[in-house]
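I am sending you the entry underneath: sequence plus fold tokens. Let me know what the token row says about the fold:
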Amino acid sequence: MAKQDATYIIIGNGVAGTTAAETIRKQDPNGTVVLITNEPHTLYNRVALPPYLRLETPREKVFIRNLEWHERNGIQLLLETHVSSVNHEERTVTTADGREFRYDKLLVATGGRPNRLKAPGAEGVQGIFNFQYLDDADAISEHIRRSRCAVAVGGSFIAYELTEAFNARGLHTTWLIRGPRFLRRIIDDAGGELVDLVARSHGVETVYGEEVAEVLRKDGAVKGVVTTGGKHLDADLVGCGLGLTYNLELLANTPVEVNRGVVTNEYLETTVPGIFAAGDVAEYYDVTIGRHNIMGTWSSAASQGRTAGMNMVGAGVQYANVPLYTSMLFDLKLSAFGLTPESEPKLESVTKADLASRRYRRLFFLENRLVGGIIIGDNQEMKGRSKLMELIKSGCPVDDREALLVALRDPLDHVGEQGAREPVQAAVEAVVGRPLDPDHVLLPDQAHVRVQAAAQGPPRALHGDDGVLAERHLDAGGDLHGLPADPAHAITTRRRGPRRRCLGARPRGRS
């Protein structure tokens, strides 16, 4: 009997889901690929939404894929279709309108929905917006045209993007942050002082330690807010960046493990064989730090989609990327990478800040290993970030954390004026006392990454593996199959250099 072609169902057509669909089609030209989304649009670049809202990017440049591309690649796209449930025993998904689809492999790339502002007067009023989707950007942009003043609520990246857009479009803008500073779990007081300085220099008013106590309205439209501290803030427009609630309801009647997100192993496969997760919703086992992690960035979602797609066709590829997010911060740049206190509050850190030159670096450590960091500054300050990410991947111990901070800013002080073709790399190697090898990822000892039968503890086994982990090859080349990066935000979607080997069974002699 001839082998029946496989059917792959992907729920969610963001960059994770669409990249997975494209990857599967290239690896399995005969299988059936079905991409289901509750969005009304084909894939668009969410990284381009902030410059689109600032009127710096035309609408047509926001879209990445059109209907013809899906047809040409044999990908069945179902728009405005909500998946209500998954039956893991029958291997079917059911939509809200009663249709049922059978799958051999399933990818959950459903992302999250923005949390709404919950305050007296907020329900049903015109002029309060979240900023997650293209339709949100369209609605906000139209409302800006008839507004004079705005309030951005939240200490998140989204809240900053709204703040910058309102300010850039000429509105009197107040940034209302419940915590003591922007990104309060990731940056410390010195970083918060720098962000406040930059925001105020651009004419933005900032309010900290307060939240919306009441929404003021007139004729059904917002006219302002009252804060918990009693401040009255005029606003024709309120934009909210209050975090996400992950779309997990469809897995409610399955044994798929859910924690903060959908728990996966290092191959992005869940605790149920044949079901994978990628993108914002994936709580994946991160081999670079030896624990589970969530990183909802465009570049991470794209690379996870590709890895999930490869593994859905049986490639057995580990996901071993260091997460990266980069953005403008008014006229500066911000870059966060690796593990941060947002995911692991017990990390230790060192900071170097210079308000006069508007520079800030904070590095995060787990025991004696560098695991993440955040940098704010100009282009010069961003130099060395790639070497920090290589150091995270290498697993090299760092005994002198302060020296690492200094080495990145003034590498020639560590290696001298002569000799080094790459002074930053040489400076980092001088601090850690050994060469960085970008071709290798050394897994933490506690990972015990011998893929055997066990469902006991992370990382979970890749179902169907023969119990031996040899050298898993990661494809380091490529541009995510042609998905363009938005020039307005320097999100990294490309990994350079040769293929990297994941040496799963090689002990390092340290935790």
User: Anything to note?
Assistant: The chain is about 20% helix and 25% strand. The CA atoms of residues 33 and 74 lie 7 Å apart. The first helix runs from residue 15 to 27. The mean pLDDT is 84.
